[in-house]
Amino acid sequence: MMRILVVGAGASGLAAAISAARNGASVTILEKMSRPGLRLLASGGGHCNLANTASPKTLPSLFQGDGATKFCRHALGRLPSSELIRFFASIGVRICSPDGFHLYPESRRATDVLNALLLETRRLGVKICLSTEVKSLIFTDSRQIAGVAISDGHEIDAEKIIIACGGKSYPSLGGGESALALAKSAGHASAPFLPALSEIHVSENPFRTISGVSLENASLSLICGGSTRRFHGELLFTHKGLSGKCALDASGAISREIHAKGRSEFFLSFVSDMNAEAWNSKITEWRSSDGSKRTCKMLSGILTASLSRLVCEKSNVPETMLLSQMGRDDSKRISMTLSGMRLESTDLPPIGKSMLSCGGISLEEVFSETLESRLRKNLYFAGEALDIDGPCGGYNLHWAFASGLLAGTAASSDGQPGEYGHLRPTEPIQRP
């Protein structure tokens, strides 16, 4: 019976252990914390947003990281949301979609998901060793995987090892850099873990006085690798900068820019689907129909009064100016501010307060079809340890389960991905 060690008892580690054990392997999970699945319990505010119903064709393009879109296509293609529903049905967890997009356990309780995963590992005979930190990998004289050395000084033999111990966010729940250290000992390169799904700190923050004000549908744009990336959604102004879904989704790309260049320049559109031309047309219409109104008053019909004053200030247009007095240059400046207010960030927020970390083990040195190392045979990776991160809304848990199941299946099948164990018939999405 093949002996496999899984480092980490989070979502990807538990999934890897289950798929390997279903294929007949003898599996042991080594977890440094005193309890398994702590970050899983915290996901989605405890409700556990497992995935979503995004199209399998477009899903990979939403992930970031050097080569991430191409790399994650195989794992996500093997486990689209329909197959993820089947997997959870096979361990007794029914899935619902209250809004028709986000997928949750029917109970809306992360504890139910974790308990089902743990019950399945117990049924399959998977051994879970808690408070057991892996300090180093052990290699044979020919640099083949032989096992691990753990924190109490003992060594554990293994034929194959799956590193699934996550990233650096939430250190109180097990986050750290052990995945990078273990991968480095096997010769792997990596990008440092940086904050993602986090607040954005804005230099000379102009929003400090309007902290707590939000926009329902804003966008942030930045140039990454020669192409423009746009992030949409709710935006919340804070005393340090920006938060809300739009900012959370953009934060990983901004963190990478700051790490590479020391700064990140990006642009805020106050209404996502309105460009400068659309705003200019709108202002022209206002000038014709409501020329006696003051500029700030008219903007307050779309934005809050405090945001309207800020837009006037940044556009160098008096907030008391009547629309009939507004010149072409005034209109142009306001339109440019509303559609692309330039912002800059040079300061990374604390990674310990981020919901995710970007960066990780280089994808170039891992086979996407099996998640096995290209440098060390019988060494596999899964989850946040790899240089892949997605937006909020279930994407990252989907990747955790998809990559864990793929790594476990490949490791227990001599590198040939087979089926994800025995699954029950597809469970329909339950909607109210």
How would you describe what is shown here?
This protein has 2 domains: 3-195 and 355-411, FAD/NAD(P)-binding domain; 199-348, Helicase, Ruva Protein, domain 3 (Orthogonal Bundle), CATH 1.10.8.50. It has a 6-stranded antiparallel sheet. A 5-stranded parallel sheet has the order 6-2-1-10-19, with helices on both faces. It has a 3-stranded antiparallel sheet with strand order 3-5-4. By secondary structure, it is α+β, with helices and mostly antiparallel strands. Helix 1 (11-22) packs parallel to helix 12 (395-411), helix 3 (68-78) packs across helix 12 (395-411) and helix 8 packs across helix 11. A hairpin with a 5-residue loop joins strand 4 (95-96) and strand 5. It has helices at residues 11-22, 38-42, 68-78, 81-90, 110-123, 178-185, 245-261, 276-289, 295-299, 305-315, 328-340, 395-411, and strands spanning 3-7, 26-30, 51-52, 95-96, 102-105, 127-129, 134-139, 145-150, 155-157, 160-163, 190-196, 200-201, 214-224, 227-237, 241-243, 264-269, 341-345, 356-361, 379-381.
List the helices and strands and how they pair.
Layout: E1 3-7, H1 11-22, E2 26-30, H2 38-42, E3 51-52, H3 68-78, H4 81-90, E4 95-96, E5 102-105, H5 110-123, E6 127-129, E7 134-139, E8 145-150, E9 155-157, E10 160-163, H6 178-185, E11 190-196, E12 200-201, E13 214-224, E14 227-237, E15 241-243, H7 245-261, E16 264-269, H8 276-289, H9 295-299, H10 305-315, H11 328-340, E17 341-345, E18 356-361, E19 379-381, H12 395-411
Parallel strand pairs: 1-2, 1-10, 2-6, 10-19
Antiparallel strand pairs: 3-5, 4-5, 7-8, 8-9, 11-18, 12-15, 13-14, 13-16, 14-15, 16-17
